[in-house]
Amino acid sequence: MYIDMAAHILTPKFADRYCKLVPAIAERIEMRTPAVADLEIRMRLMSRYPQVLQVLTMANLPLERYVESAADAVELAKIGNEELGDIVLKYPDKFMGAAAILPMNDVDAACKEAERAIKEYDLQGIQLYTRINGTPVADKKFRQLFKLMDDLNLPIWIHPTLNPQLDPDNDMFTWEFELTSCMHKLVMEGIFKEFPDIKIIIHHAGAMVPFYRGRVHYTLNLYPLPYKGLSQDFHKFYVDTAIYGNTTGLMDCYTFFGADHMLFGTDAPLGPKWGMIEGTLESIDRMDIPEEEKQLIYKHNALNMFNMVL
After folding, report:
1. Can you give the pTM of this predicted structure?
2. Inter-CA distances, 245 with 7, 200, 300, Å
3. Does domain 2-306 have CATH number 3.40.190.10?
């Protein structure tokens, strides 16, 4: 059994209501990818991999970016989270859980919706973006949400989003910069000092951090730091394996984060071959690490994160 911690979806009622409120998003690639927005097509694709259970996150349409009214964003979040909970409950042989989508243009409402979605619909955590309407998610104004998730002992998925100050490149390199910058800001803001056991999942195998591991530690320690050992906090993030079959990159990731902080994730059903499920499995299988560590990546880390068993 494999647990895919990076699988994206747009639930039907959520997508329909979203398009009515913001017609322009109907042209977004997420809306136009059938396997993302059509549950029946998704099921047919998933039947090719009956051994894979997905943990769902809403596809990249941040409510705070597109929905001007906080009240509308709250309404959409409630619709989406209820649907996520219903889908997981209805198809336990396909889905193991889901992360809540939040109306981050109202942080207090976001905290309330996170707690509601987790307690009433058994969602397994929340998804945030690297920036909230341009403000880094590491900003103190969002700290109450990190505290809530630390108290609940459930993870925060962090997905990259557009940074309009960077040259557009179809999210090829700008997203990786966004993720890397987000990790840097969270560390510098002392997120792991304040919440030593917080679970933060970074998309795309930790982006640039594993490759620049020597530079990370050297450069940070050139200057006075808020506390001793701060640069080691970069190792405390969890990361998924959604880098489209790149075993060399996964080995860099393994060297930096360790097998116990890596989570099988594919980007399904986005990317080549509808999310590279097969290619990602093969890329992990090619890793020159013990079989028991591969099993940590494939499923046991996710189960431990949620305190669950199969």
Report:
1. 0.97
2. 15, 23, 21
3. no
